[in-house]
Design brief:
Keywords: Membrane, Transmembrane, Transmembrane helix. The chain has 105 residues and is mostly helical. It has 2 helices and 2 strands; from the N terminus they run E-E-H-H. It has a domain at 19-75. Helix 1 runs antiparallel to helix 2.
Length: 105
């Protein structure tokens, strides 16, 4: 057997570790954007039935765009919400004796 044989190489898709992106919305914010548009449609239906068509259309625009603006502002903070505290925390280390030492009885 020859040692110079190489395993077959296959092209690897390098974007597997990236978040899903749709129209500048990333990851979970895609669902937030979808929810705001659906809430706008629901508001449009309710306002169209109760008031008139023009109010339904304005409700659609107002709810959808305000939801999308809120989603965009939240997305700028990052995909993962992390609490960032400004304080300095000092955690004392408490050791009971040397590491690896046994207590004598």
């Amino acid at each position: 057997m020859a040692l110079d044989r190489h395993a077959a190489s296959f092209p690897v898709y390098k974007g597997l570790q990236q978040p899903v992106v749709f129209k500048t919305l990333k990851g979970r914010y895609i669902y937030w954007g979808l929810a705001s548009v659906l809430a706008g449609f629901l508001a449009a239906v309710i306002l169209s039935v109760t008031v008139n068509f023009l109010m339904g259309f304005l409700g659609l625009l107002a709810v959808s765009f305000s939801g999308l603006l809120y989603t965009n502002s939240r997305q700028k903070k990052g995909l993962h919400d992390k609490t960032k505290s400004n304080g300095v925390y000092i955690i004392p280390a408490r050791f009971n004796g040397a590491v690896g030492a046994r207590r004598s009885r």
